[in-house]
Amino acid sequence: MRPRPTMVSQVEDYLTQRRHAGFDLGIAGRQLHSFARFADGTHHVGPVTLALAIRWAQAARQGTPLTWARRFEVLRPFTKHLMQSADRPEIIPSRFFGPAHRRLAPHIYTNREIEDLLGAASRLAPSTGLRPLTYYTLFGLLAATGLRLSEALHLNAHDVERTLLTVRQTKFRKSRLVPLHATTAAALDRYADARQRRFGHLAVERFFVSDRGTPLAARTVEWTFAGLRAQLGWVARGGHAFPRLHDMRHTYICRRLLRSYEAGRSIDHVIDILSTYVGHAKVSDTYWYVSATPELMTMAAKRFVPLARLRGAS
Does 233 share its domain with 295? Predict the structure, then answer.
């Protein structure tokens, strides 16, 4: 009699099939492995049950219904896949814990906050190392382009060329060209020169590196940012507990729309261009990043006034 497959092996088979079909499943894969280890660790035998799924969902560190709902959302496609097996799982209901997604208002950075962040980054220790310039340039690039942190950290040296970035195989397996403002390009050139002086004889592939010449890890960047955020005494203005690096992307998109309003451009046309620039698959993804800032609402109200007058006259 063949031994019953472990949950870990079933998850690995599922992920292999999905990834061969072109799906990345980075975060989802880690979550499913977490579920599999939980199931095998509790010596669960037989098909996936609703009771098992509930216990795993509620074992999350963040004990909120939103976290539980997101875990269920990850688990449901896997259980549908298992419907083809001999051990047919129980149905994992959608919205069992409520909606899995809700939009918390982001922290939209002011010019002063970005300047303060760059100033604090430039004073990081060691003052004689590359680290201060690395974080100054990285944070400045995020603010100036709206890149995802992962995109910036995966840039290779040959992806940065004069006033153009090549962002390769990012979310949705898309690559794109990102034109740069002259001041941003100049800042990247300064960093490239300093990097070359320090590691010129070494084959350092990644553009942003540590003082040891190794690629910067996202967790290290987030940890450094959290330290600078605490040092600056920032208080979140959005729905999250703290201002996030990802809020730079929200801020960039809101600012570009504001400048387009001020220049009198067609927002429908601008949002199409902006969506391509930031690497979104759909325009609706870009609208997700738009927040009703006082500046944007003021410009929208000014545009609405002539229409209201026209309707009043009729």
Answer: no
CB atoms within 10 A of CB 36: 21
Give per-residue burial for 93-103: e unless 16+ CB within 10 Å, then b.
eeebbeebeee
pLDDT in tens, 89-148: 998 888 898 888 778 899 999 999 999 999 999 999 999 999 999 999 999 999 999 999
Q: Which of 243, 278, 301 is the last residue of a domain?
A: 243
Tell me whether residue 212 is one of the annotated catalytic residues: no
249 is catalytic: yes
Active site residue 33: no
154 is catalytic: no
289 is catalytic: yes
Catalytic residue among 33, 76, 168, 171: 171
Look up the domain containing 31 and give its range: 7-82
For residues 208 and 193, give the distance between their C-alpha atoms in angstroms, rounded to a whole number.
Answer: 12
Name residues whose C-beta falls within 8 Å of residue 60's C-beta, 6 or more positions apart in sequence: 67, 68, 71
Query: Is 148 labeled as catalytic in the residue annotation?
Result: yes
pLDDT digits (tens, 9 = 90+) for 37-86: 999 999 888 899 999 999 999 998 878 888 899 999 999 999 999 998 87
CB neighbourhood size of 204 (10 A)? 17
Specify if 39 maps to a domain: yes
